[in-house]
Amino acid sequence: MATRSSIEWTEMTWNRVTGCTKISQGCKHCYAERMAKRLKAMGGGRYTNGFQVTLHPDSLDAPRRWRQPRVVFVNSMSDLFHDEVPRAYIERVFATMRDCSHHTFQVLAKRSERLAALAPRLQWPRKNRAALRACNQHVERDGVFSEGLRSF
Ligand code: SF4
């Protein structure tokens, strides 16, 4: 399931994980937490667990069916590098991104340590835009993130 986004710097959200836990001051006013609780109260099917980390493996292949190039925000309602997201699952998300070179994927993560640990083993899509947001810092790299990661 993907949703047209009102966020100005993206076109779509693609949430294969929902829910998270707060890890820093940067999480204090978490939009995803507020939305997850609201959607749960409204009976939103994907949010029956509220803000608990929940995997949604269906639609992992959805971007493969989108013919028009799109800018896609991956996991606007979670952190893909949360400890409760298995490495094999992250690799499946990356496999889809890698196979869909006509799209531009945006990945935001606050779990910088896990991201750094996994990055060398992940096959990053060539057009991926990866952004690492840690607390109040915002560092962004275009291109092959695993190379840019060395300078973080
Ligand atoms: S990492 Fe992101 S989604 Fe998770 S609690 Fe913090 S702000 Fe919310």
Entry keywords:
binds iron/sulfur cluster; single chain; alpha/beta; 152 residues; disordered C terminus
What features would you describe in this structure?
This protein is an alpha/beta fold and 152 residues long. The protein has one domain. The protein is built from 5 helices and 8 strands. The protein is globular, with a radius of gyration of 15 Å. It binds iron/sulfur cluster. Iron/sulfur cluster (SF4) is lined by residues 20, 22, 27, 30, 32-33, 78-79, 110. Iron/sulfur cluster is lined by residues 20, 22, 27, 30, 32-33, 78-79, 110.
Secondary-structure topology with pairs:
Elements: E1 2-4, E2 12-14, E3 17-18, H1 31-41, E4 54-55, H2 62-65, E5 71-74, H3 87-99, E6 104-109, H4 112-118, E7 129-134, E8 137-142, H5 145-148
Parallel strand pairs: 2-5, 5-6, 6-7
Antiparallel strand pairs: 1-2, 3-4, 7-8
Iron/sulfur cluster binds next to helix 1.
How would you summarize this macromolecular structure in one to three sentences?
This protein has 152 residues and is of the alpha/beta class. The protein has five helices and eight strands. It has helices at 31-41, 62-65, 87-99, 112-118, 145-148, and strands at 2-4, 12-14, 17-18, 54-55, 71-74, 104-109, 129-134, 137-142.
